[in-house]
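Hello forum,

I keep getting stuck at the same step: I have a sequence, I want structure tokens, and every attempt I make locally crashes halfway through. Rather than fight my setup again tonight, could one of you with a working pipeline run this one for me? It's a single chain of 1482 residues.
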Amino acid sequence: MTAEVAPLSGSRCQAPRCMSRAGRADAKAGSSSGAMARAWQHPFLNVFRHFRVDEWKRSAKQGDVAVVTDKTLKGAVYRIRGSVSAANYIQLPENSTQSLGLTGRYLYVLFRPLPNKHFVIHLDVSTEDNQVIRVSFSNLFKEFKSTATRLQFPFVLEARTPQRDLVGLVPHGARWTFLQLDLQDILLVYLNRRYGHLKSVRLCASLLVRNLYTSDLCFEPAISGAPWAKLPVTPMPREMAFPVPKGESWHDRYVHVRFPSDSLKVPSKPMEKSGSPPEAVLLGPGPHPLPCPVASSKPVRFSVYPVVQTPSPTASSQAPLAPRPFPEVSLSQERSEASNADGPRFHSLEPWARVKASNVHTAAAGTHVLTHESTEVPVALEDAGSCKRFLPDPILRLKGVIGFGGHSTRQALWTPDGTAVVYPCHAVIVVLLVDTGQQRFFLGHTDKVSALALDGSGSLLASAQARTPSVIRLWDFQTGRCLCVFQSPVHVVCSLSFSDSGALLCGVGKDRHGRTMVVAWGTGQVGLGGEVVVLAKAHTDFDVQAFRVTFFDETRMASCGQGSVRLWRLRGGALRSCPVDLGEHHVLQFTDLAFKQARDGCPEPSAAMLFVCSRSGHILEIDCQCMVVRHARRLLPTQTLGGPHPQKQTFSTGPGIAISSLSLSPAMCAVGSADGYLRLWPLDFSSVLLEAEHEGPVSSVCVSPDGLRVLSATSSGHLGFLDTPSRVYHMLARSHTAPVLALATEQRRGQLATVSQDRTVRIWDLATLQQLYDFTSSEEAPCTVTFHPTRPIFFCGFSSGAVRSFSLEAAEVLVEHTCHQGAITGLTATPDGRLLFSSCSRGSLAQYNCADPQWHVLRVAADMVWPDAPASPSTLAVSRDGRLLAFVGPSRHTVTVMGSVSLDELLRVDIGTLDLASGRLDSAMAVCFGPAALGHLLVSTSSNRVMVLDAASGRIIRELPGVHPEPCSSLMLSEDARFLLMAAGRAVKVWDYTTQANPGPQVYIGHSEPVQAVTFSPDQQQVLSAGDAIFLWDILATTESDQRFPGPSPACEAGLGTGQLEDATSRASELPRQQVPKPSQASPPRLGICARPPDGGDGTSDTKNSGAPRTTCPASHKAFTPARASRGPHSAKGTSLPPASSEWLRLKAVVGYSGNGRANMVWRPDTGFFAYTCGRLVVAEDLHSGAQQHWPGHPAEISTLALSHSAQVLASASGRSSTTDHCQIRVWDVSGGLCRHLISHHSTTVLALAFSPDDRLLVTLGDHDGRTLALWGTATYDLVSSTRLPEPVHGVAFNPWDAGELTCVGQGTVTFWLLQQRGADISLQVHREQVPETVGAGELTSLCYGAPPLLYCGTSSGQVCVWDTRAGRCFLSWEADDGGIGLLLCSSSRLVSGSSTGRLRLWAVGPVSELRCKGSGARSSSVFMERELVLDGAVVSASFDGSVDMGVVGTRAGTLWFISWAEGTSTRLISGHRSKPPVFSI
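Reply #2:
Ran it on my machine without issues. Output:
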């Protein structure tokens, strides 16, 4: 019978810290912490002499190692050479189980690299807690790499020639090098570990080495002998010194490399008289991600890549220069170069701050600015210690992973307690709690995990990665610590198996010759601080597909493969095997095996049986003692012909079903097969107990320890378990089966869309990480994806050139367009959802009208986009305000900015500068807009830079050079412009964008393949990265309430300079500019810019506020606009109202009304309360006597008012002033006129206020810039909920019949919000409806509720539309005015409308309730206008009695009118001035 399928479960997790730990050193190293152990190594130790390298008894050599005589040193040295560095080396000590036990802080390596070759130096350094760290230096390495147990530093040797490669072969003329390594600082700086001792050294080809020394003293190589004994430096011992002929300088003949360095120090006086200029240290074309040692002829103490300069044959000697004091180094955005004929060129670069690395992420650190005071030699360096740290560190934490498998889908295990599942997701190991969905991670592998094993107690986890040669990690499963890392002699480990106690680990794989190899390791001492030891190795010619250690004897194992089932035994340090007599089954291809214990629980081998399955459907039951087959059964397909019901599977003859995996419990056998079924059988295989059908072939099954749950995995990337008591199948994880190409997020529903090379488009729920939809295309591959900003639709571009829209509600294709001839490379929509843009591999650009349900094509332009641009989320970019479109094109060297509506070219930036490192012209790779308030356009280039341009003028604002050795294919800037996110190879980098003195990025690893796309979640609280899998990271930075965009530079604040005025003038006249505008700091290389205004423009529109384009104001006349001159009584700067107790002056009366407010007047006829705003004052006036009360306190002009339904509380909101960061909302006690509460949340003007029908909630709405909807509880006026709206909203109102529902109107949509309260928490559910085309309204500007369930909405075009709130549809509309409807008020049968034309109209709407039943067939002829009054300005506020017979109306002209519909009159109550401040009587 088929099990029911349950919904996917979500996953949440915390990422534990993973720390590597190696075995203990030998007795000498273990006791070296004592004073006596250090004494014999002081003051220094000659390592080669002490370990008698010449005898090769305590050391080892491999390959071409010989003793030769060096002419420079005039003595014997060791020459190590060979084409393969790993096969030609000197190693101390002889084998890895021993330890040197050297405790000296400094290691001195005296060597010379061989020309045109590569070399490698490996050091195994033990920490105080006995963790072994491999530290490597080589000119083979392209970049710095760091893991918990490995540090890899590139060693750069640079010749003084115009063409140079920073990392690569050793140039001619390489000199003897004095390499001084501070082992204590290396571990402390890069891994935050304490140095214990040096365990081993391996010197690999190709190099000459004289000797190794260790010491606790820091020697100066150029100073030796008695004459320097009194100096405050330690002279070099004669035994270690290089020979220097008389009259020559040490620095002319040799190179000194000190790494890492101390803070900068001015050289001492003896150093000044060295007689030779210091050799320049170059950083190359850009800063590097992480610090490395520096090579120089004179010690320079700072951290950058190791760069060794060798003079060219024509390099002339320079006169010595006296060192000068280090000047202060200012940040420069210019990649300037200064050079002379014989010397090198110098690059001025941005500084990078030192950031501590962690086990979960690798953070950039320690690169410093190199500058110069002349064109000959650099003499000033900036200390990284002065750079501001990028905090918090780490700023990201891995929260969840969407994915399963990677290298194989056969690796999935139960924990011994049966509460969690362990499985790999490419390079990450995931532990998933099956009941809660919580995830935790084991991080550290740099390639896909190929095998997993867990011991019987659940304390040790073993994992192997697929990269050759394979690396195996042992983990403390409970704490997540990595106990040790060791290299396997097997090149690719395909299977791991622990003994039940965890003391034995067996691995199977292929060696470098392709032969099957089995290795047994002893792991019993790992948890106690010991090392992993190889117990035995064996080669076999038989195929091995599965390998298990028996549960009853740790020295016995079993394996199966093609035509072979073998039993193994470990005895006497050797692995031996013998075959099982299979008889006629010897030709079967066996796939998996499992042991069964006897029913009486006897642990003897004679009681154990072995079950083996095959691809032909056979299951063999083998007696392990007699090594014979006891039973042979075969799984056959269901026979359905000739019977009304399907028959169950039987074991007999005929074609069988391929079995991929099986697992046993004491009572049943679980079988997974290629037909996609998981079947449970009794051990006699009499009938099927239970079965579950999957969407793909089952690749692995595993029965839980309690036998109640069966875990199954499929080759299609699904992982789940069958709960046998309830017969319900639970899905744990789904995954793409190929790399993810692109992703997109949706704000309103919190959904994620991904496209992959597996030809599927998948929709995920970001909250639960479960898959919601799966769209498969068999004929063409999806390339790009994006959501519609406001509708439940997403768009997808395909390799055929088709662009299709999909409905998330109907799960079907809506519209398809095939205007492109090549594969779609870019797809993006404007934030308001009106326009969609697509680009293809043949360079065409298409624009679509998404406001039309058929989203028809508006324009198709050929040869616009760079044809060879890769498909990427950053190929096309639309500005946050939707006005601009940017892309790379028409060539790879240019970036074009267009108007999104007209597609008129506004700007073209030529970035084709010469990249000196590659000798090619720079090209753009990806583009991204910053927030609209900044006006920044970010461009990543092929020379590994990110350029920040002004989107209006094209000038370079700043530049991030050397962001990664590989070009950045995807980048994204957060909405608050705090963090810059970029995909950098297999890492994710996060930059502090707000800091001009950028401390460098934090780097996060975990992906095993290049990251294709990065983005922020819709709420900006998380980061998403996609490549081999989908990672969800939490942003740990706390939200700062006063966080704002970076302000303009002082030069901008001071006003336009001469050059800026000249630039503005040339743009206004459409003449070419004489020069490119320069930023306030030093300019980067100038870019060729071609800019022109849109057709029909005068060329001046883009010059105003070009650096900060603003959001377009809504069309509604009701948008609040603060007055130019303050209308408050204390508007003058530096003045204020006198204290209440003062008798100097007292405000008596105010004449005037703020007509530029919105709903800023309230009147209750039953109580007589009447209040309005005048500037910063709330004026409460008695309409009978004219007496006024003045409620001051707002720092800016008041925008709106709201009166509670009980008429006891009044809320007022003001705009943001120059002295405050947020708008102020005051809550007043009507009876006493006192401010009871002062709250703030909105950073922009509050547009509307409304109380719920029961007065328990207050809703506040931000304007079109803020777009924030906030809910407050009126009991304490604490913020209950805050939501960022996807588009500007012009009105909000509570449903008068249901306090749990409110409605917003905005740009072509009506949004219904349902409030659900659970205890003190309130959640919002959203439902959006589009305005029908028949209404013809671009914006909804006002709303009010009528008789249940009617909702009236006014539009900017003068229409009034009526909605059925129960059905969520618009069924009626009519033209109510020529101008925009800014105000609507309704009773049961009468409706009042006020427009921007000043018309106030009364409508009879009684029959509308009956028209609701007719639906879309309703006609507006039943609605007629009863009366009309024309006032002196646009209607902005109104309050009427319950029958709408009389009321008070406010206009933009600053007038309050009393309206009587019965008499048809309008009486002026209060008059103001349109452009002058009100009159105050004092």
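The first helix runs from residue 27 to 30. If your local run keeps crashing, start a new thread with the error log.
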